Amino acid sequence: MGLSFSAASQEIDLKRIKEQTQNPASLFFYDSLVSQFKTNPATMSLIQGQFLYYGKLFNKGFSPYAPKSDAIKAFNNVFREGNFAKAIPLGEKALQRDPVNLELIAALHACHSNTNQASQTSFYEAQLRLLLGAITSSGTGQSLKNGYWVTSIADEYAFLPLMGLEAIRRKGSTGEAKAGMTDIWLIKNPTSGQEEELFLTVVNLLRTDL
């Protein structure tokens, strides 16, 4: 999609996100955020997007390294064949179980775009903008200290092409970031064509005091 964002980077307060998303009386209660995300994502603010995206970390059973579900695997097989019309119901079924799945939302956006379904394409684009806005607000991506925070390995790989970034190769990883493991990517700057480093941290709650 090659989306661009201008939100100033800020430190994501995981402790506050945990407290607020698990409190039914909070404006940022996770179930309420998910409900709004599934019906009208275009009305959600950046801060709601942050609580939604990073609140997923505190869902029971969530793991940043979890393997793909059978439902997502079935969808991916049909999607890769280019049978977008057939893939849509499979993807929407998988999304019911995992409604804040960046990779799956991106694929469904592509499915609806390729089948000329403008309304649904716009809907999934609004969801993508919200989630990508949350990620890009977490840092600058330009250093270990200010790397973008993602919630899973899958999101790391989905993020780059969604932002219009051409990955040349992954240079390596470091565990120095306090929130998790940071991957250092070599990318091609879309404006200058020059090679640059991009830092993406996969948040691992085991590395925090939460």
UniProtKB/TrEMBL annotation:
Q: What is this protein called?
A: Tetratricopeptide repeat-containing protein
Pfam families to which the protein is assigned, alphabetical:
DUF4919 (PF16266)
Q: Which InterPro entries match?
A: DUF4919 (IPR032578)
Source taxonomy lineage? Bacteria, Pseudomonadati, Bacteroidota, Cytophagia, Cytophagales
Q: Which domain of life is it from?
A: Bacteria
Q: Which organism is it from?
A: Nibribacter koreensis
